[in-house]
Specification:
The structure is a single chain. This protein has 355 residues and is an alpha/beta fold. It folds into two domains: 201 residues, Isopropylmalate Dehydrogenase, CATH 3.40.718; 140 residues, Isopropylmalate Dehydrogenase (3-Layer(aba) Sandwich). Helix 1 packs across helix 9, helix 1 packs parallel to helix 11 and helix 5 packs across helix 6. It is globular. The structure holds adenosine-5'-triphosphate and magnesium ion (MG).
Length: 355
């Protein structure tokens, strides 16, 4: 890597739709934080997107991964566009990056910020992280369709859980819990899924012995989903498989005030490859080009990136700026019931950064 101790090279992929609106907002705030906290950021832009796919037949160049493997982090907006099937953006960009760069941890922090719309408005102290397994599990290509066109037609889909794969995600979650409030919940369904889930549970139990300071328990995914709505304050870190983590993190984003706010990080904990930071939302074609996208999810993702780069003070300052802007209620985008533009909300966050 070509970074010095206080300089970072960031691969910036704005992508499609509102990705190209919220990423510039994030870069503006990142530059201000770098100046204030005394480090430097170098941004390399890549036009990898469905737009590019429609022009060239590829989301990214064949050697795309090589082009960004030496960067310190990747900041992604969103990829997806009407007329381009989801599997193109998924298999043409997101999955190659996640798998190629061994980003096996998907982090989705959830915080109920004061004054936000959402079903749990006003609930105090909701602050948890969903740790989703990001490269194996239920989303596998193994399986197929049999007896097509016959009355006994069937589809078979295999889930793949490996001992190293489960161990490393569970260890990551235990370690994360140890740095927070020391509580870990494992999402399971071993009463109905009788091979993979008992295997998952067994590994969680084994790894728990290595992390005696963490209070852990497991809950079946159905009950956990209900309890996340009823008593979200009870959770600190939740670890789940690829599918369970996917569902829980969207549920949790809705609890916390909507998809426009939710951040995510795809982490390669060994740091042998860059990690990738992206808002949870997609390209939002219905509002793209109007300058009214909520930049909070991209900004919060940028905060996760700063934290990962070792700039914890800058990361915390950015999160404070976002929280203050949201709870102040005067400058907010239409998805939160306001009339502000992306730029106005970005300026409000800049103004709300702690001195
Ligand atoms: P994609 O196929 O890229 O996922 P999508 O059509 O699923 O796109 P999403 O981006 O997932 O759209 O958004 C779902 C809904 O939430 C849309 O109505 C969109 O306008 C809204 N939305 C998403 N992100 C934001 C944001 N940052 N600000 C405001 N509204 C948003
Ligand atoms: Mg979507």
């Amino acid at each position: 890597m070509s970074s010095t101790s206080t300089g970072y090279r960031i691969a910036v992929i704005p992508g499609d739709g509102i990705g190209t609106e919220v990423i510039p907002a994030a870069l503006t705030v990142l530059k201000a934080l770098a100046d204030r906290f005394g480090f430097s950021l170098h941004f390399d832009h890549f036009d990898w997107s469905c737009r590019r796919y429609l022009e060239t037949g590829r989301m990214m160049p064949g050697n795309g991964l090589d082009m960004i493997s030496g960067h310190d982090a990747i900041l992604l907006g969103a990829v997806g566009w009407p007329g381009v099937p989801d599997h193109v953006s998924l298999w043409g960009l997101l999955i190659p990056i996640r798998r190629g760069f061994r980003q096996y941890v998907n982090l989705r922090p959830i915080k109920v910020m004061e004054g936000l719309p959402g079903p749990l408005r006003g609930s105090e102290g909701v602050d948890f992280v969903v740790v989703r397994e990001n490269v194996e599990g239920e989303y596998s290509e193994i399986g197929g369709r049999l007896n097509r066109g016959f009355p006994d037609e069937m589809a078979v889909q295999e889930a793949v859980f490996t001992r190293p794969g489960v161990t490393r995600i569970v260890d990551y979650a235990f370690k994360l819990a140890a740095t927070r409030r020391g509580r870990l919940t494992s999402a399971t369904k071993s009463n109905g899924i009788v091979h993979t889930m008992p295997f998952w549970d067994e590994i969680v139990r084994e790894r728990a012995a290595e992390h005696p300071g963490v209070d852990w328990w497991q809950e079946h995914i159905d009950a956990l989903a209900a309890k996340l709505v009823l008593t979200p304050g009870a959770y600190d870190v939740i670890v789940g498989s690829n599918l369970f983590g996917d569902i829980l993190s969207d549920l949790a984003a809705a609890i916390a005030g909507g998809i426009g706010i939710a951040p995510s990080a795809n982490i390669n904990p060994e740091r042998t490859f860059p990690s990738m930071f992206e808002p949870v939302h997609g390209s939002a074609p219905d509002i793209a080009g109007r300058g009214i996208a909520n930049p909070a999810g991209a900004l919060w993702s940028a905060s996760l990136m700063l934290d990962h780069l070792g700039q914890a003070d800058a990361a915390r300052a950015l999160l404070t700026g976002i929280e203050r802007t949201l709870s102040d209620r005067t400058v907010r985008t239409p998805d939160l019931g306001g009339t502000a533009t992306t730029q106005e909300m970005t300026e409000a966050v800049l103004a709300a950064l702690p001195a």
